[in-house]
Amino acid sequence: MKNAIIKLLLILLTLGVIAWANQTLDSYTLSILNNIGIFAILALSYNLINGVTGQFSLEPNGFVAIGAYMTALFLIPAADKIDMFALVDPAPVVLQMKANFLPAVLAGGIAATLVALLLSFPVFRVRGDYLAIVTLGFGFIIRIFALNEPAYTNGAMGLNDIPGIANFMWIGSFALVTLIVMLHIVYSKFGRAMKAVRDDEDAATAMGINTFRIKTTAFMTSAFFEGIGGGLLASFLTTITPDQFSFLLTFQLLIIIVLGGLGSMTGSLVATILVMGSMEWLRFLDDDMVIFGMHTGAHPGMRMVVFAILLIVMMLFARRGLFGDRELPEIFRKKFGKRMRHE
Amino acid sequence: MDFATFLQQLVNGASLGSMYALIAIGYTMVYGVLRLINFAHGDIMMVGAFLTYMATAAGLPFSLAVLIGILGSVIVGVLTDKIAYKPLRNAPKISLLITAIGISFFLENLFNVIFGGVPKAFSAPDYLTKVLHLGEIYLPVTVIIIPVVTVLILGGVLWVLYRTKYGMAIRALAFDIPTVKLMGVDADRIISIVFALGSALAAVGGVFYAVSYPSIDPLMGVIVGLKAFAAAVLGGIGSVTGAVIGGFILGFTEIFVVALFPELGGYKDAFAFFFLILVLLFRPTGIMGEDLERSRF
Fold first, then answer.
1. What ipTM was reported for this prediction?
2. The CATH number of the domain covering residues in A2-335
3. N or C terminus: which one in chain B shows less Cβ crowding within 10 Å?
């Protein structure tokens, strides 16, 4: 009971801070916070399938794209769509799609969930690493689809003038909801089953866990929140093109969850802030540098080389990341010598 | 489709399929031994093509340039194993996969930084760019050379695998690494040989790719690598013959579907993915494959 009240107070406090930030901070700071919020949603859900369930997948860019396009098509008014679609006329379905913000974002999540369900059948029937390659391929297929079906996606030109409804109030609240849901899953019966599948699939099966169902549930839950993150991203950026949802997005999220610790939700949250911050800070690597009086010239992509090396080094020498697979409160409790309590 | 066009497309399909087959062999051998999808394999092919390009740009004769490309790829492939995979042999599978994707991303971006993202024109010597006219068929020399060389290479690989002691060690590792070590075989050296062989074949595939589509870019290995992996799964992962069969099936499918239904041309790169899904749904062991998971436990 005491715990529940503390949790409720924490949630209300966080919401208050979000509302205050949304009112008072300048637009530049808010745009950074929005970016962090969206990436936090994506990283938390990506960690559920990769870290907690131990199924290596490379899907986020694909599901984020689905969510973004879905939400965008629901939000853009029909008249704007007719103006915008330059290559071919929009499909009738596209013109009929119309919804308020919340249903539009949820529709993005649901669409991604359904696709995840479809992918689960071929992938989880076989054991092994096929999930990684199928989801990697899926990210490319989504792009090919977006380019080749201009009646639905406006092809390479993408969608513009998406109503920018997603402010920090929305994004922050969604990030908070995602964190709460993920922590609840991790500490629930499902979460324990997911960890069992990760640690020893044979033993989990022997204990009567339906591993196919657990893996599919984890995958679909991840997809749902990634779709929602995509919807928020579309409304936050107000412009989306197929090239935005490249593998780079997935790679950034992979760095985040590895740094935070595979399986630690609070770790992902902290790592999101660190990685998004250092992405900005390391921007100088891409620019022209002067070393000993020599100009290196601009090297777009240098940051990514550094991040790739960082990922490999982390995997080789610090595989547990910041928090391992534990959550922040557990680490605190252990540190201050109190007995760990399982909720 | 008249007979001449059919023949023309048949040769084109064989040429494309050869490239997929060469790259698929590397995937299937590494997977067979380590149960690892070597995400960096497609990028090794890119490294081979780029090193060959650099060597020709430096004025070296083409044959020597190809040799440099192959050697460079072998070095990169073996180093990848030594630096990134070997320390993690006993780690959870997911760590290996993450380093593999890290290596892949590293190679792509490194070459992007060095050469820029703009595709580079690849200049092949004249004897490779000639076009033969046989009646109504126009045959670039390459579409004949590529399948022939591929078949020869495949023969060589099969000879190594089934007629030499090294090949026997490779096949034994695919069954059970600890037992093979107990027999006194240096498992790490054999694994290096597997990576060297796979990388050399990928480099040859990369040069073929560069000659056929005379332009190369740092991301060329991504989609080709994905397709080659799909070909390996289609043929039955772990089986070299299967990888070649899968590669040719994929090559013919891409050429003929686009020839028969030109409106599907934009989806050409997606066929491999649908093959992969279908195989996983209906016959996860592929055409030639045995159940690797079951044989291991």
1. 0.88
2. 1.10.3470
3. C
